[in-house]
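Whether sequence alone determines local backbone shape is best considered at the level of individual chains. In the encoding step, the backbone of a single protein was reduced to a row of integers, each denoting a local shape. For completeness, the protein is quoted in full, as a sequence line and a line of structure tokens.
***
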Amino acid sequence: MTTLTRIANLAWIAANSDGHKRYHAALADPEGTQRELLLGLVRRNAGTAFGKRYGFSAIHSVEEFQERVPLSIWDDVEPWVERIAAGEAGVLTKARVRVLELSSGSSAAAKRIPYTADLQRDIRHAVAPWICDAYQRRPWLTRGPGYWSITPPALEDARSQPAQTTSKIPIGFEEDGEYLGGFWKRLAGATLAVPGAIRLVRDIESFRYITLLFLLRRHDLTLISVWHPSFLTLLLGALPGFWEGLVRDVERGTLNPPAPLAPAARAALAKFLSPLPERAAAIRNLGPAAPGFLWPQMGLISCWGDAHAAIHLPELQRLFVGAEVQPKGLIATEAFVTIPYAGRHPLAIRSHFFEFLPDAGDGGDGLPRLAHELETGDVASVVVTTGGGLYRYRLQDRVAVDGFVGPTPSLRFLGKEGHVSDLRGEKLHESFVTGALARTFEGLHISPRFALLAPSDEPGPGYALYLEMPDPRPRCEEIAAALDAELAANPHYKLCISLGQLAPARIFLIEKDGVARYLTHRRQSRQGLGDVKPLALATETGWSRVFR
């Protein structure tokens, strides 16, 4: 198996090598690369309904594009997508829309993002340098398979909603590999430890069981890629409860998940199984308490690591001592914004056209900036134009420039634009709260398993920190005082506290499963795990019911 996996890994790298070379060359000329990309996209789509409305045929420069096409949010895009869903061709793109992929913001209802062959190609333009850079810098990764998390079935699958079933365009890809397209999906699939057929499992506990089963079968697992780091900690947290059954299934080559499987799912998965008595004996001796020892060759874990997701990274490093945890960068259903490359997170400049709206009050003219105009320390909101038909679309993701790869900027995700809680005029912003929590925890030398600041459910306006700690007796009063001191760096919050408009911060202790309850609550709002951005701040109340 290891030899075959190595061959598959080398073939996967070779297939992406041209994309890697082109991206590396493009990094030296972000201005030219972005201009050529945009004008090519405009020419291809000049005959579409959108292109005719905004005069694409008369656009010959970036400046003309910006003058003719307005900035947009989802409310502006949705009527065009409704026309696509009704079966109309040539609405936003000349290329046929293959699927409408579901996405959401941190609180918004599901959005349907058009996916075309052009957009899939643009995604491959970002994946290629990411993959090649990862394996070239860590050649030992080729020795074993990787686990790239597959989106688990939602408890309430948005594809089954009546509003979605009226679409004449398929809703959502059958599996995550389809983002790349058929040939590329098959090639990538040959390097994976968990088969794509896991998508057929509808029960979430069975999904976790079967994923763990396939992972445990591979002693040579070298790479794990997930979205939110809590996806992995939740998965590994299920090991003790499933342990005896998992070991038996590894030993016998059988499949006995907690819930019955549909015949098609069982048949699709069973063909990958065979008895592995020696592997079963090895993992039985190790036990489930220290997962890192179950996969001794594990070297790289890729996941969200910016903004509030960073508080989960110490837990991953504790579970996999010696493995590198690599922040994934900023990736959304709509677009790849940055990728891990050369030790930074440069812009995916061969994938989409980018503009950046500077923060209000930064002293500038407020006009959108282009990639080559950014400077270190700039904070801005991302705007994308994509091969899927999004034009000057505001992702509402705030980023900071933390350096450069050549003249191409490297960006760090800060939080969602406009994600602000304002009970009494305090205007707490997501990115500010993220920093306040990080400084509080660092100053007290604590590593929470989960933390979320939200308006309190207790009488009287104020905020509660919903906190899960490994320490059975956390210093709640000390944590609350330290947090209030950090939040008071916001003068509006400090004034509200001093005037008694807001009560001091309270601590709500979560006994267990804080992350799982948070994700389940978001999924019930029709958000997939890949859509739930790591947020430090919630603007709505009711969280005590979620965590109690």
Observations:
- Residues 105-109, 154-164 have pLDDT under 50 and may be disordered.
